[in-house]
Structures are given as structure tokens and as C-alpha cells.
């Protein structure tokens, strides 16, 4: 199985176990909302642009609500578990599911896990850590473009990924999985450490980061 397929399966197992009303780290969303979001982004390509474009967000939100009304929670999770239909770009373009969905599904898996009481970080396989690090090196500048200070991402072994060039700068250290959650705006739940001016660190921890 690919990393995307593994994350998809384990996320769906967790969604099934928790049911539709459990909290997530996505502000205002329960597990049912998150399942509907994942169905939308893979099966309603007409509404997916509104995930990133505020001008279209209203249409996206209305489609997501209709999906929740049309499908019982178990069906929503089942559609996520099935993966993208063959007629979508994910099904037509080789490896696109792995390229696009590995990080998306990893982050949303953690959105569910870390919103539950008593959570602890799971053991992330080394090959998935390396895949996440590869993506970070290519996308961190985009995700950190709104950071109020400079940011350098650093693994525990000292390897660095380009973040945001600005002063003062903060060095954020953690495993690639934790750094991924950090750049996606989950600072409060990412197990990372910060090195830099205390005021700059406070501004970074409170900032809205992510796509």
C-alpha cells in the first residue's frame, strides 16, 4: 500500500470508531464535517476550489452540508475509504493520489487523533517521515508565507528546510511529521521546540499558518 492508502485506511477506521460527533482540530468541525470535506474534495470537483479560494467558499460550504444531509455518516466514511473515483484526476493520473493525498490524509488523521482526550504521538514509519520531509522542503515557504517572523525548519538530526526569510527568525525543530502539522497551522498540537526571541516565538505560535 502507498502512504496515502495507509493513512486513508487508518483514518477511516478511527472515524468509524469515534462516530459522527467527535471533535477534530479543524475549527468548528466534528468528525462528520471532516468526512464530508474529504468526500467533497475527491468527488465534487466543482466545489473543491472553494476550499482554498474565499470567493468560492460559500458554494463549497453549501455542498458540504448537502453531502451530510444526503449520506448517513457511515456512508460518508465509506466513500472516503473507497478513495477517489477512477474518473477523477486522482484516478486518471498515475501516482497523483500519493503525491497529493499523503500529506492531506496524514494531517486530517492527526486532526482527529489529537482532538481526543489523552492523545499521544504515534510512531510514524521512517519512510513516511522521509516522504513528509521531501514535501516540506518543496512547500514550506508557501505554507509559511503569512508567518509574522522568519522561520527555519530543522529536523533533530540538524537537516534544515527553507521556511520564511525574515528577521527576527525562529528555528522550529521536530520530526518531519510534527513539522508538517506545524506548517499546517496546528502549532498548539505539534510536538516541536522553538529557538529564538521570546516575542517572535509567541507571535509565531499564535499566527494563522497553512495553505
Automatic annotation (TrEMBL):
- Output the NCBIfam families linked to this UniProt entry: maleylpyruvate isomerase family mycothiol-dependent enzyme, TIGR03085 family metal-binding protein
Upper lineage is: Bacteria, Bacillati, Actinomycetota, Actinomycetes, Streptosporangiales
Q: What is this protein called?
A: TIGR03085 family metal-binding protein
Superkingdom of the source species: Bacteria
Amino acid at each position: 500500500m502507498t502512504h496515502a492508502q495507509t493513512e486513508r485506511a487508518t483514518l477511516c477506521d478511527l472515524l468509524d470508531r469515534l462516530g459522527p460527533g467527535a471533535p477534530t482540530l479543524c475549527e468548528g468541525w466534528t468528525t462528520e464535517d471532516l468526512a464530508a470535506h474529504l468526500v467533497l474534495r475527491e468527488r465534487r470537483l466543482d466545489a473543491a476550489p472553494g476550499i482554498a479560494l474565499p470567493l468560492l467558499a460559500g458554494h463549497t460550504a453549501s455542498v458540504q452540508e448537502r453531502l451530510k444531509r444526503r449520506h448517513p455518516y457511515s456512508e460518508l466514511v465509506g466513500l472516503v475509504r473507497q478513495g477517489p473515483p477512477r474518473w477523477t484526476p486522482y484516478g486518471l493520473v498515475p501516482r497523483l493520489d500519493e503525491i497529493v493525498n499523503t500529506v492531506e490524509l496524514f494531517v486530517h488523521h492527526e486532526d482527529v487523533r489529537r482532538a481526543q482526550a489523552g492523545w499521544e504521538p504515534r510512531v510514524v514509519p521512517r519512510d513516511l517521515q522521509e516522504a513528509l520531509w521531501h514535501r516540506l522542503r518543496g512547500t514550506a515557504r508557501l505554507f509559511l508565507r503569512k508567518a509574522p517572523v522568519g522561520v527555519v525548519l530543522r529536523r533533530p538530526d540538524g537537516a534544515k528546510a527553507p521556511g520564511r526569510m525574515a528577521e527576527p527568525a525562529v528555528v522550529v525543530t521536530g520530526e518531519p511529521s510534527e513539522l508538517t502539522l506545524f506548517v499546517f497551522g496546528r502549532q498548539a498540537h505539534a510536538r516541536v521546540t522553538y529557538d529564538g526571541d521570546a516575542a517572535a516565538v509567541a507571535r509565531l505560535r499564535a499566527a494563522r499558518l497553512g495553505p
